[in-house]
Amino acid sequence: MHKHKAFTIIELLVAIAIIAVMVGLLFPAIGAVRRHAKQTESNTRVRGIIQSMIQASESRRGFFPGFDGFSFTQNSVATTGNSGPGQTAEARHWILLDGNYTTGDGVVSPQESKDVWTTGRVTTDNYSYAMTQINDASVNPNANDRYRREEWRNEQNALAPVVTDRLGISGSILPTPGVPDSYLSMHDDSSEGKWTGSIGRGDLSVEFSTEPTVATRIASYHNDVDDIFTPGDGTGPDPDKNMSVTYRQADNPMGDID
Fold first, then answer.
1. Domain assignments of the chain as residue spans, ordered by start
2. What are phi and psi of 191, to 5 degrees?
3. Chain segment 100-151, per-residue pLDDT in tens
4. How far is CA 175 from CA 162, 171, 181, 219, in A?
5. DSSP assignment letter at 4
6. Composition of the chain by helix, strand, coil, percent to 5
7. Which one of 185, 197, 225, 245 has the lowest number of neighbouring Cβ atoms within 10 Å?
8. For the whole prediction, is pTM greater than 0.70?
9. Max CA-CA distance within the chain?
């Protein structure tokens, strides 16, 4: 008679336990790899947008789309695809997309699923990334806007953010620019007050930052700690140093967050 070897119940349970432990260790590692891959891809897309802006600046006196040094691009079918005046993020994204400087999927974060733009008006359904706020006095009298406009051009400024990830939302919670405790990130919406995202500057450098405060130099004003989502209000000891990005409307630093 031949004896057949087989697992005992105890051996089987031990094997299952070992596999469970290995799976438990593997899943977080896989999640970390995926997060890092998305962060890297986000940086790549932000750098691609800035590269497209630099290309477009060659026909705009060195300024990025939406502003030519004298005035903002006016809203029309031919100039912005009726996406708004040149200080809105929609109009500036449209100029890049319609001019084939970038692609529809290149302006959408890897963290989101949005409609890839092909033609017509650009809306927040088509893009993810915020751009430097560059309002004029007729829209917002804040002097900071004038200083930011000076950096909205190809000057290779390593301390001038021009394209960034925006604030995120979670359920019914809406972040409030200027209130860091309310901030949420598209890359980590686990709790309020946490923001991580890509920050791209005029010299094509891009970092994945773990906080919304970075060192900036806007015109002749240098700020060691500057919240990219908080515009200056024209008061205080350093009224003209504040960085601010806009996701949508010209008169609101973030606009409607959908």
1. 9-246
2. -160, 155
3. 999 999 999 999 989 999 999 999 899 999 999 887 655 555 666 778 888 8
4. 21, 11, 8, 28
5. P
6. 30, 15, 55
7. 225
8. yes
9. 98
